[in-house]
Amino acid sequence: MKKMNIAICEPECTGFQHEEVNAGILKIISESNCSKLFLFSEKEHSQIIKNIYQKRLNKKIEINHFDVDLPFGKNFELIRYYLFTKYIYSELIKLDIQKIYFTSINSKLLIAINILLPKYSTINTSIFLHGILDQLNYTLSSKLKKNIFWFGRIFKKSNNNIKYYVLSNHIREKLLDFEIGEKKISVLNHPYIWNNLLKVKKYPRHVTKICCIGSMHKDKGKYNLRKIITELIDMQNDFEISIFGYYRYKIKDPRIKIYDRRFTRSEFDNYIPQYDFVLLPYEKKSYQLKVSGAFFDALNYEIPIITINNPFTKHFFNVLGDIGIILDSNEELIQYLKKIIISINKKKQGNMKAQIKLAKIILSQSMSINN
């Protein structure tokens, strides 16, 4: 297959936002039939994902980077996105780029792409769909669905020549429940560059240590977590639960530690490996149309996962095996946590860690793309 010049455009993220998945996308596209690779993004974000690639793979990557002003703003946002998209496509023509991947999307950007695509029909356009797909969910209020910029309406009517990527097969299967026409939907399991070169510091473990990665909003189980903590702080046993991100509830118990700030990846590399388990107390109906980066962070650090059965977790536990414990309800999860706080079955935990090593190999083999 003839090699081509390929561009990646990140139209929304700055700094450390989506750095892991975008670094993974960078790796996968660079390993495809790519002659020259171009990256249109905010400068700091570009440097971060490039550093992840080079540090973890221990090799350099040649990228032609274009620092762009992202089209944010309260006023005339549709016009901003139109001008931004027109600039991107005009540069693709000048640089003889045949294919572009947008690593995130929103309604106004998709409108702009649809308006401009007939003029730039020689350029193959692909889009990665993340959490925006939640807007298709039937549980949304009718008020949102009446909004002129509701993503569901724009997505359903968008150009069928656009190719879309979702980050799990459970998402593609769920999309069949919606009338999306003849959309080209492909699956690329959440791209991630495993940090296999990470040297983990060994800390003495006197108590069971559990952590939550990322800010705890509703989908990630903030209400479930509140019930969990309420139950566990009544125990006399010593333990530690750390939340690395925002959590709205303040807990006055020294065993519950809340680190309400943004962590760099190097800080995660220092802190997360010292924990026995990663807790993902997700709602049973959440993550139907998206995946969780924290789940893949846990795999990266080879820490067993404790979670609740939902479409996302069920799919990956079925594919990857016993990479932790998946339970049917928050009540069952609480009972399991009480059990491991009293005593961890080290043999079982070791088997989970061994399965995670295998799971990373399985996932790596599925992380490829054909241009």
Quaternary organization: single chain
Q: How do the strands of the widest beta sheet line up side by side?
A: 3-2-1-4-5-6-7
Would you report the number of β strands?
13
**Rg on CA atoms, Å:** 22 Å
Portion of residues within helices: 25-40%
> Could you give a short account of the major beta sheet?
7 strands, parallel
Outline: globular
Number of helices: 13
- Beta-strand fraction estimate: 15-25%
- Protein structure class: alpha/beta
Unreliable parts? none
Describe the structure.
With 371 residues, the chain is of the alpha/beta class. Helices cover 38% and strands 17% of the residues. It contains 13 helices and 13 strands. The chain has helices spanning 19-30, 43-57, 77-94, 107-116, 142-145, 151-156, 169-175, 222-232, 265-271, 293-300, 311-320, 330-342, 346-366; strands at 4-9, 34-41, 64-67, 99-102, 124-128, 163-166, 184-187, 208-213, 239-244, 256-259, 277-280, 305-308, 324-327. Strand 8, helix 8 (222-232) and strand 9 (239-244) form a beta-alpha-beta unit. Helix 1 (19-30) packs across helix 2 (43-57), helix 3 crosses helix 4 and helix 8 packs across helix 12 (330-342). The chain is globular and about 70 Å long.
